[in-house]
Amino acid sequence: MNKILTILLPSYKSKKLILKHVKNISKKIQIIVIENSRDATLKKNLRQKNIKM
Q1: pTM for the full predicted model
Q2: For residue 30, how many other CB atoms are within 10 A of its CB?
Q3: What CA–CA distance (Å, rounded) separates 42 from 14?
Q4: At 22, which helix (H) or strand (E)?
């Protein structure tokens, strides 16, 4: 049986924390970041790391 794990990270102006946590999470785990501040630079950084936002 294949189990899929997805991590949801809600944030508001937490660019440094989100990038720090994402770096420490295994590449096999799907990560979805819910950013409520419309931070364009965070969005760009996460897309480069292939993380959904």
Answers
A1: 0.73
A2: 13
A3: 9
A4: helix 15-24
Residue 10 sits in which domain range? Answer: 6-48
The answer to the question of residue 53 being in a domain is no
Q: Is 24 exposed, middle or buried (0-12, 13-18, 19+ CB in 10 A)?
A: exposed
| 13 within some domain | yes
Number of compact structural domains in the chain: 1
Task: Report the C-alpha gap between 21 and 9 in whole angstroms.
Answer: 9
pLDDT (tens digit, 0 to 9) for every residue of the chain, 53 residues total?
Answer: 567 888 898 989 888 988 888 888 888 888 888 888 888 888 888 888 878 76
Q: What is the DSSP letter of 28?
A: T
Q: What angle do CA 25, 27, 29 make, to 5 degrees?
A: 75
